[in-house]
Design brief:
Blueprint (H helix, E strand, L loop, with lengths): L1 H4 L2 H52 L4 H11 L4 E7 L4 E4 L6 H10 L1 H10 L2 E8 L7 E13 L2 E11 L1 H51 L14 H36 L3 E6 L4 E4 L1 H14 L10 H13 L3 E7 L2 E12 L2 E11 L1 H36 L6 H32 L8 E4 H11 L1 H6 L2 E6 L6 E5 L1 H17 L5 E10 L2 E8 L33 H11 L3 E6 L5 E8 L1 E2 L1
């Protein structure tokens, strides 16, 4: 029921019913008043007509008994009459029923009645008189006094009286009919009002359902336009609104998807903040960055998630509406940070921060500067020696051919050293740029390593170092490799091991096959590489403790070249301290086992 009254159908229905009920009430009240007066007037007219007839009959020369019969026939049972002379006495009485004498006596006591008849010709008056039906009961009567004349002279009056019960019965019957008609009209109005309100509001209810569908995102909802009035125009406008909403939503989604794709594809971290530093939006690089901060800062960080440096920059941007740019070091990482304010109309609603990780760039800058310094250092010594010894020869400082040959030999050795350095630099640059070409073929690993180790037999004997080769005897190990490049790697590793192994030491080459890979370990018994140097030994020009260098050092590029060659073969290379003494270099490449 509440649903009906709260709907427009119920309200329109109630409005129509109230309006019609008010109109029916006014009409019924006026009609009842009119009918009451109408019945009274009709009773008066009927009494006048009867009085006129009685007066005419009474003047005729007919017998009194015949007159009596005719007059009694004219009068109905609710109507009685008397004829009164000039002296106020009753000449003829046509009364039927009870209380005749009492009733006539009371009428005649009304002295003004006869006078008014004489003056006005006829008089109508309502009086309370004894009932003709019941004893000791008074009723309301309508009394009419009408002149009674003979030969043009007034000789008395005809007084006719009628009980108003008949009028009241007629009025009551008419009232019942009026109320019944009003009730029927009310019922019909109720049905018609409900039908009308339902029909009128049907398009509105359809529009409400369509609006609900629109609110759910069903922008293809359409209303049928069946009318050409305001409701039809409203349906047309609604359909146009739906189409426009669909277009705008699709356009917004496209822009949102485009923005999301741009943010997702960006390598820079993008974070959008609210005024209270709440994070509203972030792209995947920003998510990773935030997760890293969360794990490092825990509950001790500024605002629980942002480093204090960024939070202070964010506060400044929101407070002063200024863009802020800076480079910061956070937990060993370098970032270029740019924070700009976001506006909503004329007020600042937040800020957007763009963070670019410049850690690798810093590392590259450091590597570049270190590379230039190392190359300069490596070239300065041989160049100085070349310049010095050549100037000595030119200036004639040498006094014998032996001294001159010794200086020329030194110049030759230093020039070869410079050549090796330049060759290694070119090889390393070619490898790191991805331009190194490998000529792979299936090679027996054990014979290859045995041949490489044989080349160092005399070198090891001169250094008083024992060479040992350990490998499985029951299988042949084949790998798809570039034989020359692998030989370059192990030539460098074995040479380094011999040079860094003291007298009576041992260098071992151990071959194992595990998990589809051939693992080749070069183990020496030297003092070993310090733990703090192990993570950096494969970097260009990096050298550990110079006290480990025996004789003339290399270029500092051998291990870096070896790592690039092994990586190009899809393998791995690493270094570790031996549990006893010395260093273990372990190389692995994919193998084929026969």
């Amino acid at each position: 029921m509440n649903k009906i009254w709260n709907s427009i159908v119920g309200k329109l229905w109630a409005t129509i019913l109230l309006l019609v009920s008010f109109v029916l009430f006014i009409i019924t009240a006026l009609l009842l008043e009119f009918l009451d007066d109408f019945h009274t007037k009709q009773a008066e007219i009927s009494l006048i007509r009867d009085a006129t007839t009685i007066s005419k009959i009474a003047r005729d020369d007919e017998a009194d008994s015949f007159k009596q019969m005719i007059i009694e026939d004219i009068l109905d049972k609710e109507t009685n009459a008397i004829i009164v002379g000039k002296d106020g006495n009753v000449i003829h009485s046509f009364h039927e029923g009870l209380n005749g004498p009492r009733l006539e006596k009371k009428i005649l006591k009304e002295s003004s009645l006869y006078t008014k008849v004489t003056d006005k010709g006829q008089v109508v008056k309502e009086m309370i008189l004894p009932s003709v039906k019941e004893e000791n009961v008074m009723e309301q009567y309508l009394v009419l006094g009408y002149p009674f004349d003979m030969n043009g002279e007034m000789v008395g009056a005809v007084i006719i009286y009628q009980s108003l019960d008949a009028v009241h019965r007629t009025t009551k019957s008419t009232t019942n009919i009026v109320f019944l008609s009003a009730f029927i009209a009310f019922i019909l109005t109720t049905i018609f009002a409900f039908f009308l309100s339902t029909r009128i509001t049907s398009p509105l209810r359809a529009m409400k359902q369509a609006a609900l569908e629109l609110s759910k995102g069903n922008f293809d909802t359409r209303l049928p336009v069946l009318q050409n009035d305001e409701i039809g125009q409203l349906a047309t406008a609604f359909n146009q609104m739906g189409r426009q909403l669909k277009y705008n939503v699709e356009l917004t989604n496209q822009e949102k998807e485009q923005l999301s794709s741009i943010l997702t594809s960006m390598t820079d971290a993008v974070i959008t903040f609210n005024r209270d530093a709440t994070i509203l939006l972030s792209n995947p690089p920003a998510e990773r960055l935030l997760q890293n901060w969360y794990s490092k800062m825990g509950s001790e960080g500024e605002r629980g998630d942002l480093p204090k440096e960024i939070f202070h920059m964010l506060e400044h941007v929101i407070a002063f509406a200024e863009e802020v740019k800076d480079e910061l070091e956070l937990d060993g990482q370098f970032y270029a940070i740019s924070i700009s304010p976001l506006y909503s109309s004329d007020s600042i609603r937040g800020a957007v921060a763009v963070l670019r990780d410049k850690t690798e760039q810093h590392k590259l800058d450091k590597l570049r500067s270190d590379f230039i310094a190392n190359v300069s250092h490596e070239l300065r010594t041989p160049i100085a020696m070349l310049q010095g010894y050549s100037e000595a020869i030119i200036d004639g400082v040498t006094t014998s051919d032996e001294e001159r040959l010794e200086m020329v030999q030194i110049i030759h050795d230093e020039s070869k050293r410079m050549g090796r350095l330049v060759t290694d630099l070119l090889d390393l640059a070619r490898m790191e740029s991805g331009h190194m070409r490998l000529y792979k073929e299936d090679v027996l690993i054990i014979p290859l390593l045995s041949r490489i180790l044989t080349k160092f037999t005399q070198v090891a004997r001169d250094a008083n170092v024992e060479l040992e080769f350990t490998h499985p005897d029951d299988i042949q190990v084949i790998a798809s490799i570039d034989e020359d490049r692998i030989e370059q790697v192990f030539t460098n590793l074995i040479d380094n091991a011999i040079r860094h192994t003291p007298d009576d030491g041992k260098v071992s080459l151990v071959v194992e096959v595990t998990n589809g890979s051939v693992v080749m370990n070069v183990v020496d018994t030297g003092i070993g590489i310090p733990e703090q140097d192990l993570p950096f030994i494969f970097e260009r020009f990096y050298k550990a403790d110079k006290a480990r260098t025996r004789g003339k050092g290399g270029t500092g590029l051998g291990l870096s070249i070896a790592k690039n060659i092994i990586d190009a073969h899809g393998g791995t290379i690493c270094a570790a301290r031996s549990p006893k003494a010395g260093t273990i270099f372990s190389c692995s490449v994919p193998a084929k086992k026969l």
